[in-house]
UniProtKB/TrEMBL annotation:
Name used for this protein in its record: Peptidyl-tRNA hydrolase
Domain of life: Bacteria
Any one cellular-component term (Gene Ontology): cytoplasm
Annotated source species: Bordetella genomosp. 8
Record-listed tRNA binding positions: 18, 69, 71, 117
Length: 198
């Protein structure tokens, strides 16, 4: 068993105009996890974000949706991690991933940010890339046969068939969250990645 996850961060952009865009996949999953843990989000100005507090196996779990816009996510994550004295290894970041197709998901610890501004900023704020990431596939405009620029693509709504695939992934992610909160990353990874091959 590894160090259990104690802070779950969903990445997205604040405001109704971004609510249904691909870049907000992390927010969508965070909302579902909060529901599953019977927690509700409330704005906490000191952390520049919506925070929900839950319990799992007698331990505190904190959920965060930064309200700083994607490229300043680290501000919010860093403040909360310092307040709760959390190590990067205890943090799980939920985010959209261009390199995976809709319907795919990957769990990984550490690594680069692959140009994802939210991850880049969290890495800088934490002084370490050692946090965990749940990478929710949204596809890339090229692989999906679209002529859109990436920046434009992530700020648009997924097409219906993509959304169906993303929603299925969100359900798969929800199923493994209890394992991550118990520190059982091996089992969670096997269960998540097995479905990618199906």
């Amino acid at each position: 068993m590894s160090t259990p996850i104690r802070l779950i961060v969903g990445l997205g952009n604040p405001g109704p105009e971004y609510e249904t865009t691909r870049h907000n996949a992390g927010f969508w999953l965070a909302d579902h996890i909060a529901d599953d843990l019977r927690a509700s989000f409330a704005m906490e100005k000191g952390f520049n974000g919506f925070v929900a507090k839950a319990r799992h196996g007698g331990e505190n779990v904190v959920l965060l949706k930064p309200m700083t816009y994607m490229n300043r996510s680290g501000q919010s994550v860093g403040a909360l991690a310092r307040f709760y004295k959390l190590a990067p290894e205890q943090i799980l970041v939920l985010h959209d991933e261009l390199d995976l197709l809709p319907g795919q998901v990957k769990l990984k610890q550490g690594g680069g940010h692959a140009g994802h501004n939210g991850l880049r900023d969290i890495q800088a704020a934490m002084g370490s890339p050692a946090f965990w990431r749940l990478r929710i596939g949204i596809g890339h405009p090229r692989t999906l046969g679209l002529a859109q620029q990436v920046a434009d693509f992530v700020l648009h709504q997924p097409r219906r068939e993509e959304m169906t695939a993303i929603e299925a992934v969100i359900d798969r992610c929800r199923a493994v969250i209890p394992m991550l909160l118990d520190g059982d990353f091996t089992r969670a990874t096997q269960q998540l990645h097995r479905a990618n091959e199906a």
